[in-house]
Amino acid sequence: MSLLVIEGLDLEIHGAPILKGVSLSVSAGQIVGVIGESGSGKSMTAFAVMQLLPDGAECAGRIDLGGHEVLTLSEAHLREMRGREVGMVFQEPMTALNPIRTIGDQVAETILIHERVSRAEAMTRAAEALRRAELPNDRFPLTRYPHELSGGQRQRVVIAMAIALRPKLLIADEPTTALDVTTQAQILQLLKRLVQEDGMGLLLISHDLAVVADMADEIVIMRRGEVVERGAAKTLFREMQHPYSKALLAASTHVPDRVAEPQEAPLLQVREVVRDYTIHASGWWGKTHTFRAVKGVSFDIKRGESLGLVGESGCGKSTLTRAILGLEEVQSGEIALDGKPVFTGHHANRDIRRRMQVVFQDPYSSFNPRWKVGRLICEPFHLLDNPPKGAQRADAIAEALESVGLRSDDQHKYIHEFSGGQRQRIAIARALIIKPELIILDEAVSALDVSVRAQVLDLLADLSDRFGLSYLFISHDLSVVRSITDRVLVMKAGEIVEQGPTEAVFSTPQHEYTKELIAAAPVLPADAA
Amino acid sequence: MLRYFLKRLLSLALSLVVASIVIFLALEVVPGDPAAYMLGINAQEDTLAALREQLGLNGSLIERYAGWAGGMLHGDFGISYTYRTPVAEMIGERLWISLPLALFALCLSTVIAFPAGIWAASKRGSVVDVVVMGVTQLGVAIPNFWFAMLMVLVFAINLRWFSAGGFVGWDAGFLLAMKSLTLPAVALALPQASILARVMRSSLLDTLSEDFIRTARAKGLSKRQALWRHALRNALIPVLTIIGLQFSFLLAGAIIIENVFFLPGLGRLVFQSISARDLIVVESVVMLLVFAVIVVNFAVDMAYAIVDPRLRGRR
SMART domains under this entry (chain A) (predicted)? Predict the structure, then answer.
């Protein structure tokens, strides 16, 4: 007997078709994974079950939840259903909680809305729900506010809210996308345990094939509002038929071809770099503390080499990046490009600075939306003493855009006219325009869909071959790092705990922390494709 | 929370000291002799000398500042040159009109703006929203003195519900006194209410699109419950900022309205003493207004901390 049956669900928002004939079902105790890229309609399917759709949405078809026809329920009945029959966990734990109410209060609210119990009783049960979500009361009192918790802990609060009334169905929409790999593993473990304990059905939505493959009993693959393929998780990857499913799997395991051999001569030398932050203590008379974000890090990047840097948030990756780029002065140690120091005195060395560029994670917010592309990608020219003008400048713009696979006409457009993948290409064009030798890619492909990510990785490999570029590739996504780097550094709490050739580090990790990271990373089944 | 309070309090005291020094120096750097400026070009030499003595212009800078600031600390603001009465008394009398008027107008503005803003936000795009936005647009655009004159025409001259101006005094009884402040308070409040309602609406709309509202709805709260329990308090921060700014403005910025209604308030006092070149009064009233602004800002800071727990632990 299925808990949730969706049959032929159509959804239109202001007349635009979003979902077309979506069918899937979830049984008690079953985990169904929904995979799809952005715009595939996977989240909208979840919101349709909750009937929490944007204004102007119209559903047709059938959604049966534990015997109720969801599409015919009144708003009052829907409110009874939400939270009691179905709980929901969202992608962004940082913003999913009300910042000005305590966690106990917010979990207890789920209970108070649906049951006539005293506040004290609700609080007791909230403490129990939090304990089940592995936030024990003695360490995480109910009076804590969300800002006093980490991302993973906040996600546990959201989970506690969702399961407080032991709903029959839990919907988790990208529950771990914003989290570090080890936190992700813990949260997934928690969800799995709760499903087993309560016999809940779990609808797990993700863009990450490996996460779903690890967790789900059944997998549904969606594209442009339609289900293209569904099947048992054990066999789906072997037996899938639809070309899109195959393409998706190929893209997520894609390894770009790279021919360039790194030369022996080091391009970037980082020696014993220390970066301290001063933390002003509370009160005017309190002591100031220093926080050492980077603790004596040394490494080289060879010419033409692609070096990976992995580690969890807060490990010092971004601090190190800023130091290499000369954006922040280091307290001790040396950073030199081609033998010349990045810093002379207290100022970044312009001659060196123009030989490196950076590409950031978010292709949406790293551009000024009011500038045209042509002007945007010329920004690094301010590093040159004699920036090209007139025809020379136009040529440089055209060349940069064409080398990342865009057309030179695109320079007259604004950034909102491009898709996420194209924007990231523009970011790469911006980095390329002054012909740097080193490009730092700071989570540069993390926000992209798998198929777009595969294309951008191919582009990066191709550019490196053509221009002899070196990369410092920073990511929390181990599979991407594995596919594109020659060597890898593993960073933890400001120190490099392990480094070596990528394949060696991944296949035979030496340090405990590296082993932990690799064990935590979800993997596709070995027999996939 | 205590630490936050003490820090804000200390910053309040420091701001007052700095403000008093600036006001004092402003008078010092006025080109020429303040006494000569006050008396005009035909002044006698001995009158000038007497005024200089009275202004405390004889003596070193620090002595004079200490005398002036020290006097204010125990309520001695000096003696008005034009009225020959202690400034403290004059200010006291005026304050008994300006302060209640400002509070009255602020209460009216809040009482109008909150429901209007919340209503418009909760029914975004509906007729209610369009009407509230339209009316507040007018309220922002119409000058308050014009609106005041219109009200005098309608309610005082035609309907004879209120008197056209003047203040009956608190001795006449609370209700009568409040009645004579009603038209000016409404005139002051309407533009403020319009601004506040628009801020309330947009702040609430921003908050309603936050992720935690969706979380609240997924728990089973209705739209209305999510608005009242989760959105409203989060939307208050910008609204509190505006309320703080408005109160300071209402206290001192009512000059025109006080003139329209013949109210002997602080605004008129400043206006008259500037016209009469009575620097002693100007200096004292400005200091008082600065004091009021700083105290209001302190109150707003405290209100922030009550609304938002993230601020309490801050440095």
Answer: AAA
% pLDDT > 70, chain A: 97
Measured between alpha carbons, how far is B68 from B286 in angstroms, rounded to an integer?
Answer: 14
Domain with CATH 1.10.3720.10 in chain B: 91-312
Distance, CA of A434 to CA of B241 (rounded, Å): 46
Kindly list the structural domains of chain A, giving each domain's residue range(s) and its CATH number in brackets, ordered by start: 2-252 (3.40.50.300), 363-435 (no CATH)
The string of pLDDT tens digits covering residues B27-83 is: 776 666 667 777 777 777 787 777 777 766 677 778 878 888 888 888 788 777 777
Closest residue by Cα to residue A311 from A492, A484, A454: A492
Q: What is the four-CA torsion angle of B132, B134, B135, B140, rounded to 10 degrees?
A: 120
Whole-number CA gyration radius for chain A: 25
* Cα separation, A165 vs A86, whole angstroms: 9
Query: CB count, 10 Å around CB of A91?
Result: 20
Going from the C-alpha of A57 to that of each of A64, A226, B211, the distances in angstroms are: 19, 17, 19
- Taking an 8 Å cut-off on Cβ atoms, the answer to whether B218 and A79 are in contact is no
Burial of A391 (0-12, 13-18, 19+ CB in 10 A): exposed
Q: Tell me the residue type at A41.
A: G
Cα separation, A229 vs A241, in Å, equals 8
CB A6 within 8 A of CB A61: yes
* CB-based contact, B31 to chain A, within 8 Å: no
| Rounded (5°) CA angle A81-A87-A91 | 135
Task: State the pairing for strand pair A201-206/A31-35.
Answer: parallel
Pairing mode of beta strands A470-475, A306-310:
parallel
Tell me what pLDDT residue B315 has: 38
Question: B148 with B261: CB under 8 angstroms?
Answer: yes
Contact state of A52 with B217 under an 8 Å Cβ cutoff? yes
CA of B194, closest CA in chain A: separation in Å?
Answer: 27
Q: What is the DSSP letter of A166?
A: -
8 Å CB contact of A95 and B210: yes
Q: What CATH superfamily is the domain B91-312? A: MetI-like (1.10.3720.10)
pLDDT in tens, A262-291: 788 889 999 999 998 887 655 555 667 788
- Alpha-carbon distance B237 to B305, whole Å? 10
- The pLDDT tens digits for A58-112 are 999 999 998 889 999 999 999 999 999 999 998 888 889 999 999 999 999 999 9
Helix (H, G, I), strand (E, B) or coil at A272: strand
From A77's Cα to the closest Cα of chain B, the distance in A is: 10
Sole residue written with tokens 């007997």 = A1
Between helix B232-252 and helix B174-208 the angle, nearest 10°, is 140
Place of tokens 């009144």: A74
Q: Are A517 and A496 within 8 A, CB to CB?
A: no
Would you say B264 and B94 are in contact if contact means Cβ atoms under 8 Å apart? yes
CB pair distance less than 8 Å for B211 and A52: no
Instruction: Decide if A390 touches B, using CB distance below 8 A.
Output: no
Q: Is B310 close to A110, i.e. CB distance below 8 A?
A: no
Contacts 24+ apart (CB under 8 A), A507-513: none
DSSP labels, B97-130: HHHHHHHHHHHHHHHHHHHHHHHHHHTTTSHHHH
Q: Is the pLDDT of residue A227 over 90?
A: yes
Angle between helices B279-307 and B2-29 (to 10 degrees): 160
Which of the pair, B231 or B65, is modelled with greater confidence? B231
Q: What is the mean pLDDT of chain B?
A: 85
Q: Encoding tokens for residue B34? A: 């303040």
Rounded to whole angstroms, the Cα distance separating B88 from B78 reads: 7
End-to-end CA distance of chain B: 10
Q: Smallest CA–CA separation between B221 and chain A, in Å?
A: 6
Residue A82 in contact with partner chain B when CB distance is under 8 A: yes
